[in-house]
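USER: Please consider what follows.
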Amino acid sequence: MKVIAVVGMGGVGKSTIARKIFEDHKANNVFHSHAWIPISLFNAGEPSGFRSLLRSLISRLFRDGGEKVDEDLNNMMDDQLTEIVRDYLENKKYLIVLDDMQSPISWDKIRSAFPNGLSGSNIIVTTSIHSVAELCQRNNPGGGHIQHLEPLPPDDSLSLFCHHAFGSDTCPPNLEQHSRMIVQRCGGLPLAIKSVGNLVAKKKPKSATQWARVLETLNSEMESQGHLGLVQSALTASYNNLPNHLKPCFLCFSIFPRVKASRLIRIWIAEGFVEMKRGVSLEETAKEYLDELIDRSLIQVMDKDFLGRCKSCCVNGFMHEVIKNKSKEENFAILYDIQQMERRTSHMVLDKIRRLAIQKSNPSEIGSKSSSSHVRSLILELGKPSFGGQKQPTITNLRIRVSQFKLLRVLDLEGTFIDFLPFEFTSSHILLKYLSLRNTKLVKLPQSLKKLQNLETLDLRGTFIIKIPREITKLKRLRHLFVPHPPYENLSSTKDDLFIRWFTHSDYRGVELPTGIGRLQALWDLSLVDAFGASVVKELGELTQLRKLGIRRLTREGCTELCAVMEKMSSLISITPLSMSRNEPLLLGDLNSPPLLLEHLFLAGPLEYLPVWFSSLSHLNKLVLVGSGLQDDPFTILQKLPNLVVLFLVDAYGGSILQANTGNFKKLKHLHISNSIQLRRLVVQKGAMRELESLSIWFCAELEQVPLGIGNITGLKELHLLGMPKGFIDSLRKDRVHGHPDIAHIQRVKCSFRSEGEWNNEVF
C-alpha cells in the first residue's frame, strides 16, 4: 500500500485533483474497492469522532462493493471496527481518499485500519499541513510520495483567466492591465481565477469604470458566486481551524501582506500575542508560531537566509482579502488608504478599532473626529517623497494626535518621510513596547524618550542619528536596540568596492553610545556601535544578557577589553567586531573562553593568525572573515568545525593554496572566496564538502582553474565567478560545452565579467 500526500494551501486545488483521480480510476475499474472520506467532518482525534469515521468508512466500502452493512455497527468499539476494515481490504486492491486531514493524530489512528492489500493499493491524503504530509509518507512501510501544490505563477494565472473571460489564452492588449489587477487578487488559486473569469465573461466590462467596478465588487462576489464561495470557505476554514493563540498572529497579515519575519515577531511580542513558556524565550516561541503558520500553508516564505530560515513572508492575495474581512469583523485592525478614507469612510466610527494602519495619499486628520482609546498599534506606511511637486504626507500634515493613543503598544513609522518627531512622548505612553523609526530621515531622538519605561524594541536603522541620547539609559526593559548603519553610496561591483561593502571603513562615522549604557541589562541586541576608546567597550561587559553585538572602530586596547567582555557574555550567539581601519589588527588571541553558544562570527580587520579558540566553536554555523590577511591556510582549522554551514572569506587569505581534506566541512553549504589575489589552487579532496550547494569565487586573478575535485561535490547547484581572468572564463566555457565531468553536474554556472567598461553576466 502506497500513500500519496497532496499538500498546499486552501483553495489551491488539492481536493479537485484528488477527486479527478478518484473518479477516473473508479470509472475504469482499476481498483476493487473505493472510498472517499472527508476527514474534516469527523473529529478523529477524539474517541467518538474516530469511531464515527470508521463507521462511515465501512459503510462506504460496503456500499461500493454492493454488500450489506452490519446492522450492529453502531454498537461496535474501535478495535472491532478497525478489524472489519482490515479484513475487508486485506486481499483487495483499493483506493482510499482521506480528504482535508488537519491533524497528525488523525493519521496515527486511522493508519492501523489499512492493511497492505494487493500490489497497487493507494491512499491519497489531502492536507494543508506539511508536517502531516511528511508523517503520512514517513510512517508507511509501503512507501509514498508528497505532491506539493503551489498557486499558479502570474503568467499562467493570466492565461487561465483570459481563457475563461475572453475565450482565448491571450488577453486583449487594452485590457491586460485590468486583467492583471484582477488576477493578482485571485492569488494564483485556479478555482478563484476560473470563477472570476466566468464572471467577467458574463458582465463583459468595457470601460475603465466598469472594470474598476468588477474589482470593487470582488469581495461581495466571493460569497455569491459558486466556486469563489468555495474558495473563500476553504480559506476561512483554514483560519477557523487555527489554535486560538495563532489567530491574532495570523490576522496581523491583514496589515502586512508582505513583511520581514523579525519585524513581525517583535510586533507579536509587543502586542502580547506570544505566550510565556518556562525555559523558552518569547522570541523562540514566536518563531515556533511562525513555523506553524508556514507548516499549515497559510503563509509563504518569500526569502530565506543562508541557513534556510525564513527572512520574509507573505500571504496569498486571495487569502489577504479573506483575512482583511475577518479582521474587520473582529475589530482587529483597519487598513486605511487615506484617499479611500476621505472618500468613503469619513464618518466611520473608530471607537472599537485596536490596530490602525495608515497608507499613502493625501493629508488628513486622525484622532480628532473619533475616539482612539482602544488603539494598541499604529502603523504608518506613507512611502517615499514624490518628485512631481506634490506635498508628501508626513506625520506633521497628517496631524495625528499620538497623545490620544493611550493604550499604544506598537508605534511603527518605518519608511515614513519625516526628519523629526512632531510630538513628545508622555507618561500616557507607558505601555509602548515597540518603536520603529527605521528608514526615516530622523537626525535625533527626543528627550521624552525616557518616559517609555516599558519599551523593548527601538529600531533606528537607516536613520541619520549619529548619537544616542543619555535618556535611553533610563529604559531598563529595552531588549533590542538597532542603530544606523553607515550609508554606501555610488558603489559598483569592483574589487575595491566589494571590499568596502564588507568592511565598515573608518571614514564613516558610526553611532556614539552614551555613558551609562551598561545599565540596560535586559538588552539582547546591540549593533552596530562605535568603540570610542576602551572605556566604552569595558562598560559593555555589564550587558551580560546580550545575544547579538556589533562593534566597530576597535583599537588594540579596545580588542583587549573586548576579549574580557566576551568571556562574561555566556548567552552571546552573534558578534561582529570591526577594527579601526584596514591597518589596525584585530587582536583577539587573549580570549580564553569564547561564548559556547556562538553561532555567527563576523571579523573585519587584519588577523595575525586564527586564534586557538576557533577550534572550540562547536555551534558556529556562519563565519565571515574580511581583510584578515592570513598567510596560513585557514581551512586547516575551519574545516573541522562540526556545524559550519556558511563561510565567507573576503580578502582573508594571502597564500596560494586552499585545501579541504577528506571527510571535513561536513555541513558546509555555502562557500564564498574573494579578493585572494595570490590564490592559485583550490583543492577539494574526495569526501570533503559533501553538502556544498553554492560556491562563489570573485576577483582571484591568479586562480589557474576550477577547484580540483569539484566533480566530487555532487550536490553543487551553483558556481558563480566574478571578476576572473578572461582565459579562465574561456576555458570554463569550453569545458561546460563539452560536458567536462568536473562541472557537468553543476546546475548553474554564472560568470560576471567586465567588457568594454561594463559588467556582463553569462549563464551556461
Remarks:
- The longest strand covers residues 748-755.
- Residues 5 and 364 are 52 Å apart (CA to CA).
- The longest helix spans residues 47-64.
- DSSP finds 22 helices and 28 strands in the chain.
